[in-house]
Amino acid sequence: MGEAKRRRQTGERSPLAHKQKKQRLLAASLSVVALIAVVFGVYWLSNPKLMKPSSLPTAEGRSAFPAEQDGLGVSIGDDDAPLVVREFADYQCPACADFSSTIERLKAEYIDSGQVRLVFFDLPLRQHANAIPAAEAARCAEDQDGWWEMHKTLFEKQSDWSGADSPDEIFLDYAESQGLDTRRFRRCMSGDIHRDEIDESHNLARDLRITSTPTVLVDNIPLTRTNWAQLSAIVDRELSDRDDGTDQ
């Protein structure tokens, strides 16, 4: 009796079929392991309690940030806060828009309680045609104590204005929805009143060799990952060091 015929009659699998089954089981097992690794990795990166202090960046070897230049940015929070977080960003930058929710959480958990002061520096990139008008809109809103709301709106609605030929009317609508004086806001925008400040902020970034957005510093410690886990872990460590009198 032929071998193939015998296997058909007995129901026995051929060596090739058996090998293929083992390969399928191995592939399925590897897929499960990979999925578990991805889930664990995401959880680890998003949970600051799992980040070891030794894995966090430090200020070692870095010069102190020129704090006298903070006036070139927009500052929110207690002037006497023990820690300063500085962000260099572009309102038309998608990664900056993604990171904005992290800054909102920083404000809720650390800035509003007086532990951290935020300084936001404009770094409009050349490839983003509407980045400078957006920065001007935020600064014109600041003249009426509306910077934070405009700042949030510009990032939240980035897709609505980033491709506009002339976004000023869109920004005017945002100002109106905030209850700002729209005539004053329009004059500010049309007069480029804050253009020099934006240029000076951009020049500071150049002098510090900061070229990408967002670049975030906790005092003078640069984030290597722009996420909440690393930001909050560094902030907690630095605040603890200051409480212990072991400022780095």
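That was protein one. Protein two is written in the same sequence-then-structure order:
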Amino acid sequence: MAPSTMKALVTIEGKSASVQSVPVPTPGEAEILVKVHYVAQNPTDWKAMAGVPPGRTIGCDFAGTVEDSNGSHWREGQRVAGFVQGTAPSPPRGAFAEYAVIESSLVFPIPDEVSYQEAAVVPLAFATAVQALFQRLKLPEPSMPAKSTFPVLINGGTSSVGMYALQLCKLAGAFVVATGSKKNHELLKSMGADATVDYKDVDWPEQVRKATHDGLEHAFDCIAEKGSPQQIAKALSPTKGGHIVTILPIVNIKDEVRQLNSKAKLESTIVYTVFQRPLKYGAFDNCGEATPEDKAIWEKYLAMLPDLLTKGKIKPNRVREMGGIEDILTGFKEQKEGRVSAEKLVYKIA
């Protein structure tokens, strides 16, 4: 039996948060209650903290054990991982807490070979990569890989999302070009990148065109800041153009991108659509209505994840353990200051 109260990281006045004692949530229909053992930090967590009213529980990625299976197919005590839309008000959600509620179909069983720390760093970033590559860019899926190879650009290959995108593209039969700083090129190659480019090089779009023989038509921008979509437009095929999907909203730059490449299509994606609720994220594409397909695709990949992890076809992001729930704000500061590179910060909750 779960206790009646728990510790949680809750937003307060002044765009900050504090650890508070709050009621343990009760799972509704088709939901389960998870006892959280580890959580992982994403940039969306500290950004949400600054943008929502006080009283919301922060945090998306978690790994733990089923506390209340609530009539679902899960066993109490079973190890599971998933992500929620942290700070969401209706229904209220947040993973940086001792207990979390989630839809019973939106977690995966953690294989014996995978630790809680490793499991916690997978869900949100992996789901984002799946959505961008297979729903938005319409790439072949790993279950039906391409018969002949085709180039894909992953911009920001050492970001959490980029690392999974890179591995998924390899499983889909692509020739993967990944950008990252020089120091991370060996890491990118070990994850399956066929060609690596340093985005600090002034001529990096030309290097991508050379590596893809002017044939690039699919690009996933895991940075989507500081002019990166415009740079990618220059790297796309000059004759056919191509499709760029970004993980941040692309406000007021579609015209600029088209001027650089008249056949370029630019689109953003937001992973919270997997919860099948309309989102009020005005600047994002694909979020104004309920999205059963997005949820169904995520459920499909959740079913595939244990096998992909067990066989080493998907390797979790590198983990850096930071402490407990009281240390999360320190981790936010580190990430804001750019001191988190090619790794995920995780925290032990229980």
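The mean pLDDT is 95. Keep this in mind for the problem set.
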